[in-house]
């Protein structure tokens, strides 16, 4: 075995400094996650419970197999917006009757579970994950429909929710809807377009138009039960396949539906895997607080792969990018990890070849980000950095094996693209609290704007205001810094969650297991033209 040797000195003052900085970031992250866990707050949670109802996360817990993990996705959705953190929706991957499923649950303690623009984006991302990985979808429904004041941002793109349900079903991916309360107007199509529907007695309300709308539209007098109650749909309309006595009964029946799906993984169990040789807790002290300071990504790899066993590819060439082969929770993976931040022509060509090899062997790729982008300067432009960077991006774009990305540190510029950022459709993308992502670093961006403004003033023969320049640079740096932070980016669903570094191996293992539910095959050709 080629076990990685660790040079990490846990007694060094630098390690302690890095660890303290990471712990401080994690404390801030916990505070924001707590907002999502709190739902609509004590008042609305208490009112919900007084009605004899379970919360969204309690419903999920009862649905899942006991003592199995739940990989929550996008928990910080809507962070920094006018809407509640979490976007009134819980999504994630969990195991039901031994089957990995994509679960979504409306949080009715937040504005009655109404969907806002961020809820929509979160739900669409969940559907995308389910489709790519062939995961059965279970929708735990209780929502008043669209948040009407923001309907202009929801109505038109929101139709994709129903489109996705029909496409999932057409692809043979099961869809199950469990209706606990309101599922009205457009929301009625969630059970209407699901393969299996369970409704809770005297609680579920499914209709295109409620009694007030019916009265206004037709003059007809009606009540909730006769118009869209669970018993009516079970006995008369046939929309309900299963009639549940209460919420727990509905979740029990949902588990039985999944048990009878005959849904199987495309790949078998990879079997047991040896844990890393080094303590995952040490991941807290690896990434410097100042991302301009480089760190060795092998120290991270050694703490997440099986037995810390890593066969490095081209170790003496393109040394600011570490590439190599390993297994993670028994699954083979190829790893690309930034070492010193900058990507040169050698690193770009090395990455392109490595990605092609992974596709030849049908091996998923894991990208560990810490890059400031591709190198600039006359020497590097003349050396072909554009065409070589394009070669790497070409390879990433046309690779067909599953990709997983983790933003550990910086992820700037086109380097974010070459390392399979969000726009390049990784199956999953997570960030550490230390991560930052933007078109470039705050100081560089502010400096570029300053230089351009100064040159413009000179060309016009105008004096340049240095005090205004300093104020502009400070303002731009502050803006870019705040917009580069992981919570800001996660709030906009540019990742699938901000995770504790110590959980990286577990999170990647859960993702790899989900990925292996669907068959995949690497590209044997079909790459674009590589400019030589």
TrEMBL record:
Q: Identify the domain of life.
A: Bacteria
Q: Which residues form the signal peptide?
A: none
In this chain the CoA carboxyltransferase C-terminal domain maps to 275-514
Per UniProt, residues of the CoA carboxyltransferase N-terminal domain are: 22-273
Q: Name one GO molecular function term.
A: ligase activity
The protein, known as: Acetyl-CoA carboxylase carboxyltransferase subunit
Q: What is the species listed in this Swiss-Prot or TrEMBL entry? A: Streptomyces fructofermentans
Native organism taxonomy: Bacteria, Bacillati, Actinomycetota, Actinomycetes, Kitasatosporales
């Amino acid at each position: 075995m080629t076990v990685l040797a660790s040079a990490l000195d846990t007694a060094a003052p630098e390690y302690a400094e890095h660890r303290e900085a990471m712990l401080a970031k994690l404390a801030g992250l916990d505070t924001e996650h707590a907002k999502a866990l709190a739902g609509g707050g004590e008042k609305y949670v208490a009112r919900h419970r007084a009605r004899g109802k379970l919360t969204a996360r309690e419903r999920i817990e009862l649905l899942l197999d006991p003592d199995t993990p739940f990989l929550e996705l996008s928990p910080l959705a809507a962070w920094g917006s006018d809407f509640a953190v979490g976007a009134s929706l819980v999504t994630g991957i969990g195991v039901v009757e031994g089957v990995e499923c994509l679960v979504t649950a409306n949080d009715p303690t937040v504005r009655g579970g109404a969907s806002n623009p961020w809820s929509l984006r979160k739900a669409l991302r969940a559907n995308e994950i389910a489709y790519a990985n062939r995961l059965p979808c279970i929708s735990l429904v209780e929502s008043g429909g669209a948040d009407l004041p923001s309907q202009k941002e929801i109505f038109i793109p929101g139709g994709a929710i129903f489109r996705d349900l029909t496409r999932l079903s057409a692809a043979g991916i099961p869809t199950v809807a469990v209706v606990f309360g309101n599922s009205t107007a457009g929301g009625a199509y969630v059970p209407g377009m699901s393969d299996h529907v369970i409704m809770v007695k005297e609680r579920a309300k499914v209709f295109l138009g409620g009694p007030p709308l019916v009265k206004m539209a037709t003059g007809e007098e009606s009540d909730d039960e006769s118009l869209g109650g669970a018993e009516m749909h079970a006995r008369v309309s046939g929309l309900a396949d299963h009639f549940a006595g209460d919420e727990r009964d509905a979740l029990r029946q949902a588990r039985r539906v999944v048990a009878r799906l005959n849904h199987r993984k495309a790949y078998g169990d990879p079997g047991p895997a040896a844990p890393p040789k080094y303590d995952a807790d040490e991941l807290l002290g690896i990434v410097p607080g100042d991302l301009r300071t480089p760190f060795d990504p092998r120290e991270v790899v050694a703490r997440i792969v099986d037995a810390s066993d890593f066969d490095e590819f081209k170790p003496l060439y393109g040394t600011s990018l570490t590439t190599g082969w390993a297994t993670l929770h028994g699954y083979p993976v190829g790893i690309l990890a930034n070492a010193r931040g900058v990507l040169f022509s050698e690193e770009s060509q090395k990455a392109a070849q490595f990605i092609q090899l992974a596709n030849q062997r049908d091996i998923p790729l894991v990208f560990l980000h810490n890059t400031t982008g591709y190198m600039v300067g006359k020497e590097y432009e003349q050396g072909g950095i554009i065409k070589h960077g394009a070669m790497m991006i070409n390879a990433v774009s046309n690779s067909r094996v599953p990709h997983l990305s983790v933003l550990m540190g910086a992820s700037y510029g086109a380097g974010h693209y070459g390392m399979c950022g969000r726009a390049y459709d990784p199956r999953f993308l997570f960030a550490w609290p230390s991560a930052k992502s933007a078109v470039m670093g705050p100081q560089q961006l502010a400096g570029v704007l300053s230089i351009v403004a100064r040159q413009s003033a000179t060309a016009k023969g105008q004096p340049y205001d240095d005090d205004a320049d300093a104020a502009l640079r400070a303002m731009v740096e502050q803006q870019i810094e705040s917009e580069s932070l992981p919570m800001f980016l996660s709030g906009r669903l540019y990742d699938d969650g901000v995770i504790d570094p110590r959980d990286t191996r577990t999170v990647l293992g859960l993702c790899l297991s989900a990925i292996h539910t669907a068959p995949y095959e690497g590209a044997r050709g079909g790459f674009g033209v590589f400019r030589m």
